[in-house]
Write a structure and sequence with these properties.
Distance between the termini: 181 Å
Strand order of the largest sheet: 13-14-16-17-18-19-20-21
Number of strands: 21
Helix content: 55-70%
Strand content: 15-25%
Largest sheet: 8 strands, mixed, barrel
């Protein structure tokens, strides 16, 4: 019986040891919680050691069952299985421990590491064989003190394992509310048991070994049996609590993992929903495997291409190929994908119905952790409409909407390389600047829609005149430009080639244009300039052609004219003169000269006011040099206003003198000035401001001015006549005045032009014309005066034929007011 009890106690002590070892290892594993590689290794080793302790402890329980209830085949089989499993865990623990230790020494070769690890495996294998071959009662050979030592070690390890598991540094620390008693008391009990284990293991057992002859097993049992049972019972209770704690930890960990798994599953499900939603975007998506076989497409892909999912599954994307891209295009695309992992560009593909479409395509390679391509993802968008819209916008930006010819921007774009090419190959080029004559009149009379129709037909005819490769552009309005390239390198030959084109243009314009119900004849004025890579800007070339075009207009229209550098000089001088004119107005550089108008007895009856310009650098500038420019630029209006104001101020000055109050001043009025809508009001204001006798102001009008808009002219003249102003028709006889028109005009005086006076004594025709004018004026009750009288013979002829008033160098040149008044004093 004693042997039976002793055998059971020995097995229990081994159970305490192995379970204690397991609890210690589990506590260690819980404490370290793998957060880095080194701690991960410790956690793994502790796990394998704990597995060994739990399985081997269970094996000892099976041994106890056999002792109490007897052996059986099932128990023997389970015994061998648990023994095998426990040593597998021990074997794995030894293998991993050895590898971990040897891996810390990098200088040891791998072969040597395997050789050093082999003894560990051998020891474990021998221990397993020893377990199998030894008799079941092997524990009887173990002394009471030895197996008691194992039990104490088990208790000691159990306490440490428990302390480790409830340590606050553990990531799975269990709060004291888990237990039904205070943690501090439990910790005190654990500390006492821990102290007992230390005392037994490191004091009692060594003393028993050293004093074996005195402290034999019997003596040990008699002296320490009751305390051993007490502490053994306490160890069992503590072990049970530790098991509960560990199971609690295990339960919580499993629960946490389960919750985490559920949460991960929900997150994965949400991500799948998001991915599915993201997959169904407006862009088409095509996914292939590494062999370029389609494995998935989205709804947008089927909408864009017309293919269903079933049509393209397990197919190669080349089923979309349109054939518009060559093999080199695809080779470059795949080279980019293989080297950079992606490609982006535009590709022409073909839909299921055969329709071609342009797609914006992005292809990306998907790789695994080993950098091996697993899939290719293509994202595509149909940009056919976008491209068409962009091309339309670009066309509108560079082409004229009315004629569909290149516009100014496109012409400039083409001129830039044309200039460079002409310089490189040493060939001439040319610009032909074409302006339609009297186009404004057409718009004003027939309307802009008819004008637009003419421009469209002109564009068609101009395109038919040029060679392939030449450019016909519309700059705007009625202005067109033809750019000729690759002309002869010799200027003379190039001019001949240009004239051929120019004459063709003039020829096609000789045919009438059919404008709805109107047959319209239109003529062009063509200005031409050559270029040969000279250092001229595009604007300068266009300016030269424009200048030449205006020269063609000046030569009579329906002509072509080549640019001459002298034209540029004239234009430059004209611009400078215009600038100086504006400055002259601001700085009051103008002055009036007066030329006497006399009777044949040389009595001065008035004067013609003639403007002169005292230029600071150029001196006295005659009217013929600046009046035409003033007419063109509109500066004639402020200049004419100044002349009227100055002349009226002079009349006021003369009216204060008894000897000069009868004098009249004749002022020339330009057509542009007279046709101002408020001209009558301007003159009335000047008269009122100076408070003069209106009869002393005589306005000289030319025939062309009067006949331009005769009805409006008559209306204005009558209003001014009502005020008291007198009128003289200047240069009479040079125009085309009819007697009927002349009769309607409220004119006081006719002035015979000097061109008839010059040869009056030698040319019978001029003599007859002058006599006729005098007779006509007399019959109409008009005064008559002749200008340009320079000789006594001319004066005598005029006096003989009844022309009472004369003006010319014979009696005085135009002179400043001081000289004129001095002349009055002499008279």
């Amino acid at each position: 019986m004693d042997n039976f009890r002793l055998l059971i106690e020995q097995h229990m002590d081994v159970v305490f040891f192995t379970y204690g070892l397991a609890f210690f290892a589990l506590g260690l594993a819980i404490l370290v919680q793998p957060k880095e590689e080194s701690r991960y290794e410790i956690s793994q080793l502790a796990g394998w050691l704990a597995s060994f302790g739990l399985v081997h402890g269970t094996l000892e329980w099976l041994s106890l069952w056999k002792i109490i209830h007897g052996d059986s085949a099932v128990l023997s089989l389970l015994n061998i299985v648990f023994l095998l499993v426990s040593y597998v865990f021990l074997f794995e623990f030894g293998r991993r421990l050895t590898r971990s230790i040897l891996d810390k020494i990098p200088s040891i070769p791998n072969l040597v590491k395997r050789m050093l690890g082999a003894p560990i495996y051998g020891v474990v294998a021998l221990a397993f064989l020893f377990e199998l071959l030894t008799v079941p009662d092997r524990m009887l050979a173990m002394t009471v003190a030895t197996r008691y030592f194992l039990g104490c070690i088990g208790s000691f390890l159990t306490g440490i394992g428990f302390l480790l598991s409830i340590n606050k540094k553990s990531s799975m620390y269990i709060e004291k509310s888990v237990f039904s008693w205070s943690t501090k008391y439990f910790v005190l009990a654990t500390a006492a048991f821990f102290f007992y284990g230390v005392l037994s293991c490191f004091v009692a057992y060594p003393a028993n070994i050293v004093s074996g002859s005195v402290f034999n097993d019997q003596w040990f049992l008699e002296k320490f049996h009751f305390p051993v049972q007490i502490f053994r019972a306490a160890s069992a209770v503590l072990a049970a609590i530790a098991i509960g704690n560990i199971l609690r930890l295990f339960h919580m960990e499993v629960r946490e993992k389960l919750l985490s798994s559920l949460k991960s599953a929900k997150e994965a499900e949400a991500k799948l929903r998001i991915s599915a939603h993201a997959f169904d975007v407006q862009e088409g998506i095509l996914i292939t495997d590494a062999n370029n076989v389609i494995v998935r497409v989205n709804r947008a892909f089927t909408h864009i291409t017309g293919y269903t999912t079933e049509d393209v599954m397990d197919k190669n994307p080349r089923i979309l190929s349109s054939g518009r891209q060559n093999t080199s295009f695809y080779a470059a695309m795949w080279e980019s994908i293989n080297s950079n992992g992606a490609w982006k560009g535009e590709v022409w593909n073909q839909k299921k119905n055969g329709e071609y479409y342009l797609e914006d395509l992005t292809v990306s390679a998907v790789k695994d952790t080993h950098a091996n391509v697993t899939h290719y993802v293509g994202i595509l968008t149909d940009i056919t409409m976008n491209r068409a819209a962009a091309e339309k916008i670009e066309h509108q930006a560079f082409y004229d909407t009315l004629t569909d010819l290149p516009n100014r921007l496109m012409l400039r774009d083409r001129l830039t390389p044309a200039l460079a090419l002409s310089q490189r190959n040493n060939h001439n080029g040319a610009l032909l600047f074409i302006d339609l004559d009297n186009f404004k009149t057409l718009n004003d009379t027939l309307g802009h829609d008819i004008g637009d129709l003419l421009l469209q037909q002109v564009a068609e005819r101009l395109v038919a005149c040029v060679r392939e490769g030449d450019t016909v552009a519309r700059l705007g309005g009625d202005e067109f430009v033809i750019m000729l390239e690759d002309l002869s390198e010799h200027a003379n030959e190039a001019i001949v080639q240009i004239e051929v084109i120019g004459n063709k243009v003039l020829g096609v314009f000789s045919q009438s244009f059919k404008l709805t119900t109107h047959n319209y004849h239109c003529t062009p004025s063509i200005g031409i300039t050559l270029f040969k890579g000279q250092n001229l800007t595009i604007d300068e070339l266009l300016k030269q052609a424009d200048i030449a075009m205006y020269q063609a207009k000046a030569s009579g229209r329906n002509a072509m004219c080549f640019f001459d550098p002298q034209m540029q000089t004239n234009i430059t001088n004209r611009v400078a003169l215009e600038k100086d004119l504006k400055l002259a107005l601001a700085e009051n550089q103008f002055m009036l000269y007066y030329q006497p108008q006399v009777l044949h007895n040389q009595k001065i009856i008035g004067a013609e006011a003639l403007i002169r310009w005292h230029h600071p650098q150029r001196g006295l500038v005659p009217p013929v040099d600046f009046i035409p420019l003033a007419e063109e630029t509109g500066l004639i209006l402020p200049i004419g206003q100044w002349v009227l104001e100055t002349a009226c101020a002079q009349i006021k000055s003369w009216e204060d003198n008894e000897h000069t109050r009868h004098l009249q001043i004749a002022v020339n009025v330009s057509a542009r000035q007279f046709h101002q809508t408020d001209f009558v009001e301007q003159v009335s204001h000047i008269l009122s401001h100076n408070d003069i006798n209106p009869a002393n102001l005589k306005l000289e009008l030319t025939e062309s001015l009067v006949l331009g808009d005769i009805n409006n002219t008559i209306l204005k003249m009558r209003k001014l006549r009502e005020i008291g102003i007198r009128f003289s028709m200047d240069d009479f006889g040079t125009g085309y005045s009819s007697l009927s028109s002349l009769k309607k005009l409220p004119i006081n005086q006719l002035k015979i032009d000097q061109s008839f006076i010059r040869d009056i004594t030698s040319d019978p025709d001029d003599a007859i014309i002058v006599q006729t004018i005098i007779a006509m004026a007399t019959s109409l009750g008009m005064e008559v005066i002749a200008e340009g009288v320079e000789t006594e013979e001319q004066r005598a002829f005029l006096e003989l034929h009844g022309c009472p008033a004369i003006q010319g160098y014979l009696f005085g040149r135009p002179m400043p007011i001081e000289q004129f008044e001095a002349l009055l004093m002499k008279g």
